[in-house]
Structure formats: structure tokens, C-alpha cells
Amino acid sequence: MKRIILMLAAFMGSAVAMAQLQSPDQFLGYKIGTRYTPHYRIVQYYQHVAKEMPAQVKLEQYGESTEGRPLLLATVGSAENIANIEQVRNNNLRLANAARDRMAPNENGPAIVWLSYNVHGNETSSSEASMMTIYELLNPSNAQSKEWLKNTVVLIDPCLNPDGRDRYVNWYTSVLGKNVNPQPIAREHREPWPGGRSNHYNFDLNRDWAWQSQVESRHRIKKYNEWLPHVHVDFHEQGVNEPYYFAPAAEPFHEVISKWQREFQTMIGRNHAKYFDKNGWLYFTRERFDLFYPSYGDTYPTYSGSIGMTYEQGGIRAGLGIINEDGDTLTLVDRALHHHTTGMSTVEITSQNAARVVKEFRSYFNNAINNPIGEFKSWVIKNDGTDRVTRLKELLDRNQIDWSWANGGNLSGLNYLTGKSESFKAEKGDIVINVNQPKGNFIKVLFERTSKLSDSATYDITAWSVPFAYGLKTYGVANYITAVNKTAPENTATTFTDNAYAYAVKWDGLNSARLLSELLQKGIRVRYAEQPFHIGTEQFEKGTLLVTQAANTGKPVRQALEAAAKSTGTKVFPVASGFVDKGYDFGSDRVRIINAPKVAMLYGENVSSLAMGELWHFFDQQLEYPVTLTSANDFMREGMNKYNVLILADGMYDFFSKKETNEELKAWVRRGGKIIALENAVAQMAKTDWGIKLKEDDDDKKDDDKKADYSLLRKYENRERDWLMNSMPGSIFKVELDHTHPLGFGYPDFYYTLKQDGNIYEYIKEDGWNVGVIKKDNYVSGFTGSVLKEKLKDGLLIGAQDMGRGQVVYLADNPIFRSFWENGKLLLCNAVFLVGQ
Ligand SMILES: [Zn+2]
Question: Which terminus of the chain has a smaller tally of CB atoms within 10 A, N or C?
Fold first, then answer.
């Protein structure tokens, strides 16, 4: 008995010893960086920390990834700050003029640092480093961090993209032998398609902060805007031959970025340099990673009042160890240590300047309200009744942008579409945004018609102006609009009658297409009108969907329409007679039957996973219409008999370069197949005999027989500038649209395209339709190299070609780029559902 008690005591003693904060090495049973930690183990470590240090850590799950993994946020601080953490948070919103209670803030609150790890799933050292950092911040024997936490609260998101991270880690672990193979050509350094960088739907989450097309972003940014931290770090990795990059960022900086935001970046960088110098680690600053495109993990926080930064450790696909160009072996141990060092150094320098950090944060938001910069004080977005307006409202709400309904009145402002100042009438139902609000700078950046570049060598697209991306008529106004409404104008709901002859649905956006998708999947016969028609006072444009009782005998038409109208938010017009006042009657053959398309899309090594992912997400989550992802081989072997629509996302497709398969594909089109080719798929078809041709540079030909061409004598030091002349990081062009062709239905006679390459095509001469063309001077906004600007004139970007009983649709640009180019979504639906019916 005595022995048992002793043993029990010993056991309890060890239980007490175990019930203490463990380092990640102790908890996991291996040194960080010597093995990969799967996501569920990272979660367990954070739970352990929260359980052992409840007075100093608050751990919450703010959402779930697409595949159902938990998304976590740990709040770390002194016991005093954590006990009052809701007050700290609310006070911070008051500092940002973003609190609902309008109480005066306490200007002596703690500084707030937010550390974001592993947004790119295969940049794996950062989640490992996050565990070292949270431990060291709380380690009872670390006197320094104890001091920092007195005036600094640290928020840690250990993994923004757990699906991508586990995709990489599971794969890597499955190919690792007994020992690490550091040879760069070894299989373990050759991550297979699509790789772990992106999320489940192959979206790059570090391009999605503003648009929030993905659930991971939506959950996270909701939480982010509840906090508005003062300093935000996004931990990344770059190529294995690069050393380490930290702030200050590279030009171009957007002009809204404040002096303090620049200055503190430099102070942070100098603090990191101190540690890197001491250890002899290489690093660089002020190059490559700019602050411009608003949807990154550094710019989004920057445009929301934070010091937003990206840190980049060399290491993508390095696994546990790889030999780099210098002949050194770069290990995961080193990579994690570097990210840990900059994480701690960020907290240190912030703590050392906490009072200033808070003061500058306060003045950023006071300026946002009292002295907003930019030529416009407000914007009016005309409500054209389409679901693009609904989507815009969602975008504004998700970003905590304050907006109102217009109250009517005569105003004047810059018409975005024409680029000219004019008088206009604001009507009830239009959307008004005044810039004097906490998100003022962010609004300015999202809405600016043209962005001022301090340097044109940027990392990303240079044009994203929301009115063009959403296709909404917008005015920029030089003063505030005070006559506004908070309550929505009344919406007239459809009254469904039992004796309707037919139902009509206007074809004006993604919601109409979603309704069509739902009806087709329920087996309801739907037609579309090729010509506009009137019934009474209501005007119906080309493409209007018609569902008649006559074509759906015995089917629950009314119930199906009512359900679809409700689930998609679409207005349905019951019609009493097939005799229209103007146009073709419903029995005419100008009213075409829509056969439900059977859609396949190719995936695989040479297909852009991002482009394919956007389309997959579009079909799966937005249109809710079945699409089969299949390989080129499987499609050629078995798919041709099963599918009649083939989508070729941006990519390289071998079958175009082989005569036999090229002919097979053509024969399939002639039998009634339809190819929808996008971006580089179009360029490849232009190199063979499909009937579309790339427009060549005229200059190249002319120069051939010249004697001396001095333009060839380029200066070495100008090499980057010379390259820019041919560069096209993403700009907006106006496309003139033939909207009498089904591919243009639902649009006015123009469309704004986001152009990301210099490809433009010759007008199709035979059996084809030049649906979308650029004429002279159709450039709208964004950086376009001088050489390309000249070239992008008088050519085709959107085309349709008849081939036998089938069609080919050419979309030279991505119509649904990053899922935020809302105005192109209908174009894609036209290609899928209407063309060729
Ligand atoms: Zn990255």
C-alpha cells in the first residue's frame, strides 16, 4: 500500500512537471526543423501553450479552411493586457475611429503586432518558426520578452493556409528516404502539380486579401478588421538561392503610404540587420517586393493603417535540406531560425517604440477622416439592378467600408467610363461612398481610375479599379455627399401566378446564369431570346431566358422557378401570353433551346493551376454547375463521347503541336463539340491552323532590311528599363463588343478587359465572329510598356468561330482573374451556355 502511494506521488509529481509550458522541441519530441510538423500537431502545440499559460494566451478558432482544418489566432500579452483584452481591442478600434461607440480612446494603450505564417502552403519554415516564437514570447526564463509584452500585444496566426501546407508536408514526407537528399534534382525537391502554395481551389491567398473570394480570407480578414493591428508581418519563402529579405520594401510605394509607415519599416529593417550581421547571415532590403497591388498581406494592412511587411526566407521546395548555388546546405532548421529571429526582432523594436507606434496609428486615422488625400471626396456607383451591384456591396461590407444609398439629386463628377467630367443625376438605389472614414486610403486605392506608380517595375498587376472590374458606371465627385440614406430602397418581389403562360428572366449577370444552371440540372426546358422584346412597359434584352409551360408539360415549372429565384436572388417575370408587343413570339425559332452543356476541363502539369483553380471554383462554388476535371489523355480517349464543352485554361497543351491529336480535336468540334480556350491556349491555337492568328509586330519586319539599327545597342545598366518597354504587368483596356452575338449578350457594346500579356490577334476573316476587339487608343489604366502600348491596337481579343456543327470560343484574356474581375463572369457563362445553341 505504502509503495502504491509512493508510486502515485511520483506519478503526480511527474504530472505536475509535465503540466508546464514545453518548448516545441520538448512537446513534439524533435528539434524544430529536423522533421516537418503536420498541421494538426501545430494546432496541438498551440492548444498546449494556451492551456499552460491561460493568463497570457487566448487561443481562438476563427474559422475552417475549405478542407475543414481549423484556422487559429493566438493572442499573447502580459497577464494584465490579456485580462482586459476586449478593452484593449475596443480601445484600438476607437484609436482607428472605427469603433461603434464613438468613445474617446485611451492613447496610452499597448502596441499591437500581428504575425501571419504560411499563407503559401509550401513556404514551410514559417509555421515551424511560429511555434518557436510563441514559446520564446512566453518562456518564463526569457526576461526580454517579458519586458516587451508589458506594452505590446502579439497576435499570431500560425498557419493561414493549412490545406496547402499539409498538401506539401504530406507529399514531402511520403517521398523522403532514410536520409535527406540535398541534391536539387532529387525527387523530394520536385513538388508535383499543383503544389502546396495555393489553397484547396488553387487560389493564391496572398492575392486575395481585398477580394476575399476564398473562405480562408473571409474568415481571417473579418478577424483582422476587428483588430486593425499596428504592425503586420506576412512570413514567406523565396527561391533557395536567395538569402533573406526584410523591410524596407522596394519601390513602387503607393502614394497613400505615409511618412511614418516608410520610416518605421526602415527602423524595423535596421533592428533585424543587427541580428543578421551578428550571425553573419545574408539578407537584402528595398528590392523586388513593392507596396502597390492592394490585395497582399503587406499592402492590405498598409492601406488599413498598419506597418505592413513581407519577410522572405530562401527555401521554397528546399525540404529539410538542399544544396544551394553557394554550395551550402540550406536546412529547415536554419530557415525556421531566421524567421524566428525577425519575428522576435519585430516585437522588440515595436515594444521599444510602442508609444510612438500608437501615436502615429492614431494620427493615420485622424488624417483619414480630416485630411483624406486624392482628387475625389466621394463616389457614386449607379445601381443598374444587376447582381454586380450586390457583389460590390458584399465587397464593401467585407472590407468594413462604410457606404450609403443615394438620396437623389443633381451632381457633377468624373465619369469613369468616359474619363470626362459631367453632370449626372444620383437616384435612390445608387451607392454612395464618402472617403472620410477609417478605410479611406484603402477606398482610394480600390477606386482610383489610374494609379500613380513611383516606379513601373512592380511585382504584380498595376490596375484593378473596381468600377472597371465590376463593370459599374461610377462617378468620382470632388466633395462629400451628405444627403444619404441608410435604409435600402424597397424591392418589389416577384408575384408568381399559377396560370402564367411562361416566365422570363433577364440575362444580366451571374445570378441569371446560376438560375439557368439550377433549372437545367432539374431538367427544366429553358430557351433564350435572340432578339429584344417588349411586354407591356417591360423591355427584355437579347439573351432573356424563357421558360414556357408548353415545353415543360408535367414538370413543376412554377415551383422550380420560385425556388431558383429565391436561391439566386433573381427577378422572374411571369408572362400571360406568348404574343409579344414587339420582337419575336416565344414559339419563333429565334427563341433558341438551351441544351444542358456537358462540361470538361483539363488539368495537369502544363496547365496553370491558378487559372484552372479559378475556373474550378467558379463552376463549383459560384455557378454551381458540374464540371469534370480530366487529363488530356483521358479526354482524348474517353471524354470526347461524353462531353460537348471543353475548357482549356491558361496553359500549354501538347495535342495542338501533334498533327494527329490536333486533327482529332478538330473532328470532335466539327461533330458538335465546343472548345473554350483562354489566354495561352488561344496563343497556341494561333500557332497552328485553327483559324486564328497572332498579330505580329510590324516593326520587326520593317527593321529587317535596315543597315544599322542603333536601338540594338542597349546599355547594360539599363537592362531592367529596357525590359519594361515590353512589359505588361496587368492593365485595363476597353474592348468594343458586338453584343448582338450570344457571346456578348447581357453587355453594353463595350467591356473592360484586364490585359496581362501583349497577345492580340488578327481579325477572323472566315466563319468567325470578331466579338471583342481593341481599336485605337483603347488603353484605360495601368502600366503598359511603350512597345506593347503601340502594338495593342486594332486587333481581336474575344472571338467565336463556327466549325462544322461545333464552335471555338477564344478568350485572349482571363475574364475571371482572381475571381474579382466580376464583369467577365457573364462572358464565360455566355460561352458555356449560349454560344452555339
Ligand atoms: Zn510566399
Answer: N
